[in-house]
């Protein structure tokens, strides 16, 4: 039942649609917080993130939020990944992978998600673990910050999307290549914390793409 309701909410809220990359980023939470999709009881999820003030999800289906503040030095480390400037979209996608991996490490140190296992491994409990809804949301936050900082030349952050329908849902962040308008999945779920995400053509991802080791 929870899966059905979560997927329905995903479509109703356009969280998995193709809305502009400037809309507030909202989490999709568990059924226990169905009436509080954009806030918890203590502090709202930060819909317009900045490096010194942003939210990430964890605990599966954004059951928990953490609020992160990077130092100037930490953000300079992220900026350095994009220099020298990429000469083509393929190079920039590699930079995006490295930046998201580093942001996961930096955020994980503050949020307690630094030991997040790949996929939905809950062998050590839910605390600090991320499912694909958490991962898609967090990667969208990271992409938004990269875009706002002017670090993306060939791409723009797009919205989350899903595959698998009601019975086997899987979520991902996405980007769009500016010149070709080609959309790519940015999927962090298959790796542990700090491992670079897969960036795959969206139609290929929609067809059920998995890493070759699976």
Q: Output the number of helix runs.
A: 5
Shape: globular
Number of domains: 1
What about the largest sheet?
Answer: 5 strands, antiparallel
End-to-end distance, in Å? Answer: 28 Å
| SS-derived structural category | alpha+beta
Integer-rounded radius of gyration: 16 Å
Unreliable stretches (pLDDT < 50, length at least 5) are 1-19, 31-39
Helix content: 25-40%
Give the SSE string.
HEEHHHEEEEEH
Mean pLDDT equals 85
Strands, total number: 7
Which range does the strand content fall in? 15-25%
Question: How would you briefly describe this protein structure?
Answer:
The protein is an alpha+beta fold. It is built from five helices and seven strands, in the order αββαααβββββα.
Structure description:
The structure is a single chain. The protein is of the alpha+beta class and 214 residues long. Helices cover 30% and strands 15% of the residues. The chain has helices at residues 2-12, 72-80, 89-111, 132-148, 202-206; strands at residues 54-58, 64-68, 155-157, 161-163, 170-177, 183-187, 198-201. The strands form two sheets. Strands 3, 4, 5, 6 and 7 form a five-stranded antiparallel sheet that branches. A hairpin with a 5-residue loop joins β1 and β2 (64-68). The longest helix has 23 residues, at 89-111. The chain is globular. The two termini are 28 Å apart.
């Amino acid at each position: 039942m929870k899966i059905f309701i979560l997927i329905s909410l995903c479509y109703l809220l356009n969280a998995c649609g193709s809305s502009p990359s400037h809309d507030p980023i909202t989490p999709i939470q568990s059924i226990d917080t169905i009436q509080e999709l954009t806030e918890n009881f203590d502090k709202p999820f930060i819909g317009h993130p900045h490096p010194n003030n942003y939210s990430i999800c964890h605990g599966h289906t954004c059951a928990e939020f953490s609020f992160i503040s990077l130092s100037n030095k930490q953000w300079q480390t992220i900026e350095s990944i994009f220099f020298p400037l990429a000469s083509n979209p393929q190079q920039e996608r590699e930079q995006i992978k490295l930046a998201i991996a580093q942001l996961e490490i930096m955020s994980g140190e503050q949020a307690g998600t630094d030991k997040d296992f790949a996929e939905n491994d809950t062998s050590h409990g839910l605390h600090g673990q991320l499912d694909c809804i958490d991962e898609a949301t967090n990667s969208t936050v990271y992409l938004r910050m990269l875009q706002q900082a002017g670090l993306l030349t060939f791409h723009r952050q797009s919205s989350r999307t899903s595959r698998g329908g009601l019975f086997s849902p899987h979520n991902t962040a996405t980007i769009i290549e500016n010149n070709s308008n080609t959309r790519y999945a940015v999927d962090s779920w298959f790796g542990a914390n700090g491992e670079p995400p897969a960036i795959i053509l969206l139609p290929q991802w929609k067809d059920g793409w998995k890493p070759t080791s699976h």
